[in-house]
Amino acid sequence: MRSAFEIVAEPNRRAILSLLVSSQRSVGEIESRLRMSQPTVSKHLRVLRDAGFVDSTVDAQRRLYRLKPQRLQELDDWLAQFRRLWSTHLDALERHLDRMEQSTPPRKRKRKTR
Description:
The protein has helices at 4-8, 11-22, 27-34, 38-50, 73-103, and strands at residues 25-26, 54-59, 62-67. By secondary structure, the protein is an alpha+beta fold.
């Protein structure tokens, strides 16, 4: 089985996942929104379903796909370490900018002459 990272590395699959964040969608809706062919959409949905990122239900003649956010947890867990790193750096930058702002006297604006 491929890793979550391999699955979402493909741009079309990421686009499909992004569409499914807001609501469940049929293959036809995904096709028209992303301007992909039905076979291409179906292929990517099959990969996403097999990997546990989406599931589907049948509604009359349509199959509706929805996101299964639990599978995204693996990605989120891995990204957490980088969020902490960036958060620390951004906090330090904010403190530095605050100190600069406090130690720099305000500038006077030059008046335009005509």
